[in-house]
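Exercise 7. Given the components listed, write out the predicted structure of the assembled complex. Treat all entries as one system.
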Amino acid sequence: MSAVVETPQDARQRLLDAACEAFREEGYRVSIDRIAARAQVARQTVYNHFPSKEALFAEVVRHAIQSVLVTLEGDGDVRTTLLAFSEAYRAKVLSPDGIAIFRTLTAEAPRFPALAKQFFRQGPQTTRKRLAQYLARAMQEGNLKKADPDFAAEMFAAMLTDFDRLRGLMNLQTDLLKPAKSAQVVDCFLRAFAPEKDKP
Amino acid sequence: MSAVVETPQDARQRLLDAACEAFREEGYRVSIDRIAARAQVARQTVYNHFPSKEALFAEVVRHAIQSVLVTLEGDGDVRTTLLAFSEAYRAKVLSPDGIAIFRTLTAEAPRFPALAKQFFRQGPQTTRKRLAQYLARAMQEGNLKKADPDFAAEMFAAMLTDFDRLRGLMNLQTDLLKPAKSAQVVDCFLRAFAPEKDKP
DNA sequence: GGCCAACTAGACTAACCAGTCTACTTTCCA
DNA sequence: TGGAAAGTAGACTGGTTAGTCTAGTTGGCC
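Answer.
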């Protein structure tokens, strides 16, 4: 029939894309058949590229982790920098993809502890460390109160997404991405970590 | 054999307990057979009490939700009250049970949206509202800066558990419950919401 | 004693799933 | 032209699952 082998190599890519969507929408429980159908590929083709469902899942997760990382650009003043970071961070973490990755890994962490650990370290942990580095510099330059930068980063990241992520996870409309929230959080954080100004 | 009908009514209770443990440990995917075995009950008995696996799951979740609520006792000064709340809140949310409930509902929210909504409203939402009520009072009494108490409650709850809950969800050792963390967070929060003292 | 309500064991259906295997087709390249 | 590489369809194995059904057992109560 018209089942032409359209492109020799990128069946793999279609497969990864399809698996990504499928896992995102239905979790790990989605069947190989459904993934294959979504990629318009025979089941055997899946096993030509990946030795098992687990391996395919791991590959998808590895890709997904990369897509939720945010960098800090520290050229302006502290408030401006943190505000820009906040917007970007919230946009990624609270996006449908960000929520879905979080949900899937939360659900499967007991089954795939190594993958969960990798996600934790390459995702939230990495973001927190970058943030802490920036905050440490700001502290040394006197733009922030001297304190434990890791703790400060943890607080800041928590304030930015905790509750809204919960809303997203529980499938409630997220009222997302209204910039007011970022600004509110940044100002709250800056009040808690303002430099001690009482030098008489 | 020795299969005496030991107690006529509380087979149901044993069943609920077993289901609670089973769902907590293995998630919704655990089979009815395993739950029945754990309760030392025949499979048919499960269906005598609950029309379906879904119904049993819903019942277990409803019970579990209640067990993660924390109250505020507002007799001392603000810092003391918040500190006591923090300890209790962290102990519950970050306990194995708290993590397990969170994980299971996160995983199954797409499948059981009504249950997820109920969890959100009766769990985190309720806690946040109680907290906001207390904070609003403290603000009016001049013990805290005047601000949106809902926002303040959200920030406080986020700071208390966000990162540690993530660690728990990803199956990493939690370094849990060291009281230092609560104090650190409370002081951070109090810095951000200290009353304006510059009245010349 | 006799009945009822609840429990038990276990067979059974119908469906689903991961993974293997076979036989066939298509494309490309040498 | 001819063969290797990759894809396809579909049968098949062995396992699991939710839920139903049957037949038998037990205990309490009148």
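Discussion: The longest helix of chain B spans residues 113-140. Chain B is about 70% helix and 0% strand.
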